[in-house]
Amino acid sequence: MTQLRFLLNDTEVALTEVGASDTLLDHLRIARRLTGTKEGCAEGDCGACTVLAGRMTAEGLIYEPVNACIRLLASCHATHIVTIEHLRGPDGGLHPVQAAMVAHHGSQCGFCTPGIVMALYALWMTSPAADATAIETALQGNICRCTGYEPIIKAALAAHAVGGQLQDALAIEREAVSARLAAMRQGRVTLARGADRALIPADNDDLAQLLLDEPQATLVAGATDVGLWVTKFMRDISPAIFIGHLMKDIRVEDGTLHLGAGVTYAEAAPLIARHIPAAHDYWLRIGGWQVRSMGTIGANIANGSPIGDTPPLLIALGARIVLRRGAERRELPLEEFFLGYGKQDRQPGEFVEEVQIPTRPGARIAAYKVSKRRDSDITSAACGICIETEGETIRSARIAFGGMAATPKRARAAEAALEGQPFAEATFQAAAEALAEDFQPLTDMRASAEYRALVAKNLIRRFWLEQSEPGLPVRLRHDGEIAA
C-alpha cells in the first residue's frame, strides 16, 4: 500500500504524500484547520496538544490520550484520531466534561483547556468512578499555569458523577469504527514526500526483513524521544520504520513477565501493579498519561539513554532481552546490552523483540526516581533495588542506578557490601558508602555531581527505613499529608 489511512473524527483520511518527520499536530492545525489542538512545548511535556488515538487491541478498540506535537503522522495508520472539535453531548451540545469545566470555572486563559478536556475525556470513558487521585494521575501530562488545578479537579469529579448515565458518540460508534479500522490494516505501507520516506511494516517478520534491507533506518515506536529529534533538533530521520503497532505480545510464564518490545508503559502498568506492586508508584512517574500511552518499554531500552526510566528497575530485577536479526534471535542480560554512552550491543539490522522481567516473589523490591518536578519530568537519578533474604541474612542483592554513569549500571560494590551480611542499618550504611566506588557522576543541567552522589546514598538509606519499619512515614500523599 502507498496510502496512509486513518479516521479523523468522523472523516476517513487517505494520504499519499507523507514524510517520516510530519507531525500529527501540523496536519491537524495546518491541513485540517482543527485549531482547538494547541502547540505549547512541542516536546510532549505540557499537554496542550492532547488528542485521543483509538486503536485496535486484542481486547478490542481502546482510546488513549496522546501528544499530537510529537506523534508522527505516519504512526496514525489504522487509528481513530479524535480532537476537541468532535466532543459533544447526547443533544449535540457540550459534553459533560466540557459542561463541568464551564460550571466549575476550570478554564482561565483557555490555552491549555482543550488538552485538559481531552485527557479528562479519556479518563471519563475508561474510569466512570474515578476519584481525585485518579484524576490527578490522568492530568500528570497537562500543565496549567492559571487555575492551580483545584477547579479542574472539581469539574472532573462532577463530570464523573454523571459519566455512567449516558453513552456519548464514541461509545455509540465503537462497533462501526472498529470495523473501519480493521479494514485499514492490510500489508506493508510505503510512504514518501520527496526523499523523505516512511515505512510501516505489516508484522514482526516484515519488520525483520525491512531492517535487513534498510539497516540504517530510524526505528520509531512511540516517538516520545524521536519526536523531539524532529521538533527540537530538526533531524532528518528518513527512512523511518514505524513499529508502534507491533510486538504487543504479553504473557506470564514461570514467574516471568514476557513483554513484546512494543508494549507501552500504559499497557504494562496493570501487570506491574499485579506482579511487582512495589514498583507501581514508580511506573506511574514515567512521563504523563500521554507519554505512557505512546512510549514503549523496548524503545526505552533500545534508546540506550543513561537516564531512561525503566532500565534501573529492570536491571535490579534481573531482566533479560531478546534481540532479533532476520530469523535469528539471541538473548542476554539487560545490563550487558549497554556498552557505553550511546552504544549498545546491537548489530545492524537487529532490534529488541522481547523483554523478560522476573517478578521475584518474596524479594524486597523498591524503585525510586528523583527529578526537579515530581510528575512528567526527566530523571536526575533513578534507582532499582531487589534484595533477597534468608532469615535476617541478605542472600543476594541487585542494585542499579540511572543518571549516575554513562549507562544504566549496577552498583557492584554496594551489592558486595550487602551480600552475606545481616539485614541491619549498619549494613545498608556500608552499602551507601560503597557507592563511591561504583559511580563518579557528572554535573549537568538536571543535577550536580555532588547532589547525585548524596541522593544515591540517601536512596539506599530510604530503602532500609521503608523495609525495617513498614509503617514509617517517608513520603507525601497527593493531599499533602504524610503517608507511609
UniProtKB/TrEMBL annotation:
Pfam families from the UniProt entry: CO_deh_flav_C (PF03450), FAD_binding_5 (PF00941), Fer2_2 (PF01799)
Domain FAD-binding PCMH-type: residue ranges: 191-362
2Fe-2S ferredoxin-type domain: residues covered: 2-87
Keywords from the UniProt entry: FAD, Flavoprotein, Iron, Metal-binding, Oxidoreductase
GO molecular function, one term: iron ion binding
Signal peptide: none
Keyword 4Fe-4S belongs to the record: no
SMART domains for this protein: CO_deh_flav_C
CDD domains in UniProt: fer2
Highest taxon, organism lineage: Bacteria
Transmembrane segment boundaries: none
PROSITE patterns, per the entry: 2FE2S_FER_1, 2FE2S_FER_2, FAD_PCMH
UniProt key word Iron: yes
NCBIfam families listed in its UniProt record: xanthine_xdhA
Database matches in PANTHER family: XANTHINE DEHYDROGENASE
Record-given protein name: Xanthine dehydrogenase small subunit
Species assigned in the record: Paracoccus tibetensis
Lineage: Bacteria, Pseudomonadati, Pseudomonadota, Alphaproteobacteria, Rhodobacterales
